Amino acid sequence: MQEQEILQKVKEVVAERLGVEIERVTPQARYQEDLSADSLDVVDLVMAIEDAFQIKIPDSDAGKIKTVQETVDYLKKALEDRA
Amino acid sequence: MDYKRVVITGIGVITSIGQNKEDFWENLIRGHSGVTRISLFDPSSFPVRIASEVKDFCWKDYFSSKEANRLDRFTQFALAAAIQAAHDANLREGGEDVGVIVSSGVGGLGTLVAQQEILSQRGSERVSPFLVPMMIVNAACAQIAIHFRAQGYSSVPVTACASSLHALGEAYQAIKRGQARLIIAGGAEAPIVPLAMAAFANMKALSFRNEEPQKASRPFDLYRDGFVMGEGAGILILESLESALERGAHIYAEILSYACSTDAYHVTAPEPSGQAVVRMIRKALKEAALSIEEIDYINAHGTSTPLNDKVETMVLKEVFRDQAYAIPVSSTKSMIGHLLGAAGAVETIATLLPLEKNIIPPTINLENPDPDCDLNYVPQKAIFKEVKCAMKLSYGFGGHNACLILRRFEG
């Protein structure tokens, strides 16, 4: 999966789960500070991303991901490792 | 101790027959039933296939899709009704002297059941982190407090089908004693989920009149066979008279008294002699300093179960003696069904509007008189009558009873 494709899919999931306009979900956007996610929203978002990409994100990794770009980078690597 | 007078200055209501006070009242006095075949799930395989549902709930008028996703249906109803009530009372913000007492019988049952299915099918890791905050019975109370930043008194009295009348009673007492200036009070319920419909049906508490949904809820009728499950919310703004006058708020009614009692007899059946309810009503009349001749209207619990309506009638005859036959007693459950924990508050709205309108809503479907139920239940059609004082009664599983007396505000 190409990075652009991953980014687009992440944007869609984030916009839907956090109820924000997709334009606000930029690569630099921080979930908690910029997109008003609380701690439960983040847990819910991780589950939704796991479902969307059919992968498992361990809590220890999820805790380090703070922005949309970090999510994309993590997914890109995880998907490559799996392939 | 210097007690405050307590008045009602705002109402909000979500029911099958109206999602605002105007529609609710219009349909109530027209005798319109909100009962239909269940649409929230496929009821084909269920013994009871009818309910009083809130159709096309206009949640978008009140919150975003993200908020809606984080709130169980009962909390959505509660918050919507609270926003209506606050608007009606011209209440803009909370504060340290503003409280919330909003209850429910079963809380976020729909969310609980949906997540149990996810647990069974997909495993523990897929259970939503929002389950607990959505399911807890105090979710509605908490979300209303957060929405209005109401930081004062809060409580969630859970007494099954008497929950929201206890909520209004506790709010009245707290304001009366100066523990809060204003309280957003009432109840909400969304119990039309397969699990609850199966459980209540198996208790033989529900009407099985599936072929005639609008005729199923028939309180005090000889052929009543159980209650019809309903959903929705009723929220009222209660405040001290001083606060209402200072704010220039419209005053719907004054609360004269509240009383409660407990059967301590059986977890579902009413105590056959009704003595706990008799004592409660007498206490409420005494606190209100009213004689039995001064009650102009009683909005009964009137569930349409064989036992409730019989015992309730007996109780009213014992308390009001010959006068019982002169007082219009109606059950608005005949139209909106039984909203469990929300019933007391929604029906209190149906009790206070007659104080302004001098019209008493009917008990529809009362076609065949039952020799055990021989009072004036305002059968079929609303009546015009001057109403200065009115009484609301609620009883809940567990044997919990509550009573509120209201009076038209005349300074």
Task: Please write out the topology.
The complex is a heterodimer of chains A (83) and B (411).
Chain A: H1 3-18, H2 31-35, H3 39-53, H4 59-62, H5 68-82
Chain B: E1 6-14, H1 21-29, E2 36-37, E3 50-51, H2 65-69, H3 73-88, E4 98-103, H4 109-122, H5 131-135, H6 139-148, H7 163-176, E5 182-189, H8 194-202, H9 213-216, E6 232-240, H10 241-247, E7 253-262, H11 275-288, E8 297-299, H12 306-320, E9 329-330, H13 333-336, H14 343-357, E10 359-360, E11 383-384, E12 389-396, E13 400-407
Helix pairs in contact in B: 3-6, 7-14, 11-12
Task: Give a written overview of the molecule.
The complex is a heterodimer of chains A (83) and B (411). With 83 residues, chain A is mainly α. Chain A is built from 5 helices and no strands. In chain A, 22% of the residues are buried. The model of chain A has no long low-confidence stretch (mean pLDDT 95). By secondary structure, chain B is of the alpha+beta class. Chain B has a 9-stranded mixed β-sheet, sandwiched between helices. A two-stranded antiparallel ribbon of chain B has the order 2-3. The radius of gyration of chain B is 20 Å and the shape is globular. Chains A and B meet through helix 3 of A and helix 2 of B.
Task: Throw out a few tags for this protein.
heterodimer, A: 83 residues, mainly alpha, globular, B: 411 residues, alpha+beta, 9-stranded mixed beta sheet, two-stranded antiparallel ribbon, 34% helix
Describe the structure concisely.
Chain A has helices at residues 3-18, 31-35, 39-53, 59-62, 68-82.
Largest sheet of chain A: none
* Residues in helix, % of chain A: 55-70%
N/C terminus separation of chain B = 22 Å
| Category from helices, strands and their pairing of chain A | mainly alpha
The percentage of residues in β strands of chain A lies in under 5%
Strand order of the largest sheet of chain B: 4-5-6-1-7-13-12-8-9
Number of helices of chain B: 14
Series of secondary-structure elements of chain A, N-terminal to C-terminal: HHHHH
Overall pLDDT of chain B, averaged? 97
What is the element string of chain B, with H for helices and E for strands?
EHEEHHEHHHHEHHEHEHEHEHHEEEE
Helix content of chain B: 25-40%
Give a short account of the largest sheet of chain B: 9 strands, mixed
Low-confidence stretches of chain A: none
How would you describe the oligomerization state of the chains in this entry?
Answer: heterodimer
Number of strands of chain A: 0
Radius of gyration of chain A: 12 Å
